[in-house]
Amino acid sequence: MDDIYGIIPVSKFKECKTRLSPFLSEEERENLLKVMLKDVTDTLRKYTDKIIIISADEDVLNYAKSLNLSVLKENDNSNLNKALKQAMEYCKGKTKKVIIMPSDIPLIGKTNLKMVIDSSKQLDFIIIPSKGGGTNTIIMKPLAIRTKFGDFSYKEHINAADRKNLNPQVHDSLFMALDVNTTEDLGEIMVHGENTETRRYLKELKINVESVHGSERLKVTRRS
After folding, report:
1. Between the CA atoms of 15, 199, 190 and 10, what dihedral angle is there, to the nearest 10 degrees?
2. Are 199 and 220 in contact (CB under 8 A)?
């Protein structure tokens, strides 16, 4: 039995990151998701035995295959939590643990992921929160809990792990808490994301960032 598999659910490329419209075109948003997925999987593959991309989108699955990743076609009439259950059912009996994370945390390589994964060999449940009360990573045995991704999922997952006596351990990471949804998030990538595919792509798009002292910390613009 392998030690750990990565599970990454990915939504349709064509419908992704609508909060970044009209700052980025549909094609630019699709390409952004691709480079972020590459950053995430390039880091994750160093520490896992297999990475599984689960999606209902054939474009996503074909792109994942081009990156030499394993793929699962999401069942019909599914949603995020059902898709993760499907992926964990596939993993059960093949691996001791799974690490579940989104495709849009391109600063993952800036954190000590090896330390977190090594810790999971002695711990039943590790969770990394996202900004705003969400969850960006869970490491656990397949199907140890039923995932509850959605609004304020961090507390939901902690409570679910407590009910199963899994003694949930929190790993707080600035870089892994940053999932990209807003223009200010793009600015954070420009500030912190040196040597990532995502930052290189944003530079191609002529994204510019300035530090400000108003209601937002960063002013993000595009040079003409």
Report:
1. 30
2. no
